[in-house]
Every structure is written in structure tokens, then in C-alpha cells.
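Progress note, project year one: complex with S-adenosylmethionine.
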Amino acid sequence: MLPGKLSRSSIGFSLHHPRLAFQLLTGHLSYEEVLRELISQDLQLLRNRIGSIPHWRNILELPQESIEEVLRLVIPGSQESRFGKLNRWHAFLYAITNSLRPKIVVETGVLYGHSSAAVLGALEDNGTGVLVSLDLPTMEHQSTIVDGKYIQVGLNSDRLSVGCAVPLILRSRWSLRLGNSLDLLPKILGEVGPISMFIHDSLHRYDHMMAEFHLGYNALEPRGVLVSDDIGYNSAWSDFCESNKENWKGISKYREAHDKFAFLVKSQ
Ligand SMILES: C[S@@+](CC[C@H](N)C(=O)[O-])C[C@H]1O[C@@H](n2cnc3c(N)ncnc32)[C@H](O)[C@@H]1O
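Model obtained:
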């Protein structure tokens, strides 16, 4: 939904958020400011919902089905539209960050910054920890679909900046680095020392995923957590876990088999 474009999503947005739509149309708010407002509202809704669910803070220890149940309770399919932007993947990142209380988190793949905001929101609640996020510079953003799956997505307008949806109040714990993750990661991981959590959500090609998993996993402290979105796109995640003899849990976002994310807790 970009200003000036009348589409089903822009009409839906206006019906759900008439005040923001008016401020956008009259030029009182920029599109990036609207995105930040939506994410702030979503985060508050997420905090309220998840706080009412027993045991959610033990999310790392829960069986796979119980994690899916928690996420369904937080964001029921039928009520997804009440959340402007954040989905079950983001709710999971919020919960796991809250549960793990990490000191240093590294993520690849930022786009508008929804996953970054979910992690940063939890770090803020924890009162500790920093997030380093990596993405390509805006001019290198593109969308690539293979076999009906988005193996790469990019910003849909050069008027938007990477991570623009992250609320300003959450940015003091955030470092955003732009470049190819495989070029940047060795240097960044060397700089920050052992990390508590690594999140892959950049380019979902086998070789790229494998390379990121290796770099992220080797940088993890003992009992650190490796997370990947979209593990059903190819066998990189399962191959990686098998070759490292790690147990993992895969979580369904929606109905499609390829719509899964996963995590492992490093065994040593
Ligand atoms: C699926 S989006 C990230 C979505 C975000 N994690 C979220 O949940 O809101 C994937 C992002 O990865 C970035 N990306 C793709 N290839 C990359 C690469 N080689 N290095 C760094 N980032 C990359 C894209 O520019 C895009 O912004």
C-alpha cells in the first residue's frame, strides 16, 4: 500500500486505520512514519496477547505442537487482519528473544524491519541485549520467484529505506549494516564475539542458507539458538542439522508445507 495507489490493500488499510490513512493522504505523516506507527501498535497488541498465555516464556522448551498452539492463540488466522504487519514468525521471534534473554543477536534479512522490531521490542522488555541486522543496500533489492516461492524479496519502492518500519524508540539497541551477508558476516561475527542467537531470513538459496548457517552456528555460544525462516524452500536446514547432529523444531506458520520456520539450541 503506497500513497497514490488505490488497491484492495489500500482500501483495507483505510478501513482498519482511518486516522493513519487520513494523515498519510493529507501529508501529515510519511509512509515510513505510518509503518512505524503500525508496528508500534502491533507490538503492543502482541505484548498484551502473549502475556495472557501461560508458559509462553518457556517457549524454547515447549514441544513443537505447543509452540504452534501459543502462536495460534497470539495471532489466530481469523484475526490476522487486526495485526497490521506482524505475523506468527514475528510473534515467535518476540517470544524466543524474551525467553532467551540474549546479549547479542545477529539477523540477516531486514526488509521493512518487522522481524528487527519484534526482536528489539523483546530486548527492550528484557532491558538488555543488542541486535545487529544485515541487509542489501536498497538499490540491490529485487524480488525473485522460483517455483512459485519468493526465494528473495526486496523493498517495493526506492522511496523506502531498509528497516524503515522499526520504531525510533527501539533503535538504541540496533545496528543496521548494509551489504551482502556473506561478505559482512565474517567481519561482524569476529567483531562482536560469541553471540546468543542467529536468525537467517535473507536469500533462501541452498548455498547461501548453508553458508549463513555455518557462520552463524560457529559464532554461537553454548546453548545459543540458530533460527531460520522458510526452511521448506530446500533441504539446507535439515542437511545442516543432520551434519551437525543437532535436534531441531520446525514450526508451521500457515497451512502450506513450505511455510515453516525452525530453530535449534546448540548442544555444546
Ligand atoms: C524475507 S525479507 C526479510 C524479512 C524480515 N526478516 C521480516 O521478517 O520482516 C529478505 C531480505 O533479505 C535481503 N537479502 C537478500 N539477499 C541478501 C544478501 N545476500 N545479503 C543480505 N541480505 C539479503 C533482502 O534484501 C530482503 O530485504
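The beta strands are 104-108, 130-135, 144-146, 149-152, 174-178, 195-200, 220-228, 249-252, 260-265.
The radius of gyration is 18 Å.
No further modelling is planned for this target in the current period.
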